[in-house]
């Protein structure tokens, strides 16, 4: 593919993320390659490597883009609720809804692994911390006397359970007869786990 200089690096980065995001709305990440991404964007694979550093970091940047969108959706859902429990429930249900609406993008966030020797950039760790901070915001009022260690355990327990429910719902692996929705499982989890 011939070299192009139609876009600034910032524009090309945005174009790449938008284009690959659109691809993942229809097809799984396993169906994408660096060459295919480059072809979709209309630039050479080398240009994308120069821009992102590697194909792995391109996918990581895409995951950052997805996490930003997810964080915005979760925050908006929380803003519609008044109590800490209702905020947590709204956030968990929106997390499920996001995964159901964008399953390929959601899976990529959790399935992508950096190559050995590659380190998670600070900008991605900040996104992870931001998502966990949303859970913490809901849970701190429910456990006002909990130590830092206790609250961190509770945050990750709720996060792991909700994430597991979402994953099993997407994979259709709940194996319940009659069928049970992910939303019903989230409601049951939070009703039983959270203090009255």
Automatic annotation (TrEMBL):
The keyword DNA-binding applies. Residues 88-189 form the HTH-type transcriptional regulator MT1864/Rv1816-like C-terminal domain. Keywords: DNA-binding, Membrane, Transcription, Transcription regulation, Transmembrane, Transmembrane helix. InterPro entries: Homeodomain-like_sf, HTH-type_TetR-like_transc_reg, MT1864/Rv1816-like_C, Tet_transcr_reg_TetR-rel_C_sf. It comes from Corallincola luteus. The chain crosses the membrane at residues 40-62. Pfam families: TetR_C_33. This is TetR/AcrR family transcriptional regulator. The keyword Repeat does not apply.
């Amino acid at each position: 593919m011939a070299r192009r200089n139609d876009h600034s690096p910032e524009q090309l980065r945005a174009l790449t993320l938008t284009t690959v995001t659109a691809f993942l709305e229809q097809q799984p990440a396993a169906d994408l390659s660096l060459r295919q991404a480059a072809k979709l964007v209309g630039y050479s694979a080398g240009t994308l490597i120069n821009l992102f550093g590697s194909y792995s970091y391109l996918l990581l940047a895409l995951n950052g883009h997805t996490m930003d969108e997810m964080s915005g959706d979760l925050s908006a859902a929380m803003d519609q609720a008044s109590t800490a429990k209702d905020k947590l429930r709204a956030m968990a249900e929106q997390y499920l809804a996001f995964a159901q609406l964008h399953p390929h993008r959601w899976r990529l966030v959790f399935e992508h692994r950096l190559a050995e020797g590659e380190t998670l950039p600070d900008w991605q760790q900040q996104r992870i911390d931001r998502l966990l901070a949303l859970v913490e915001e809901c849970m701190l009022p429910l456990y006002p006397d909990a130590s830092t260690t206790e609250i961190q355990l509770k945050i990750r327990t709720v996060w792991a359970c909700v994430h597991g429910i979402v994953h099993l719902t997407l994979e259709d692996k709940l194996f319940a007869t009659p069928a049970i929705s992910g939303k019903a499982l989230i409601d049951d989890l939070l009703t039983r786990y959270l203090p009255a």
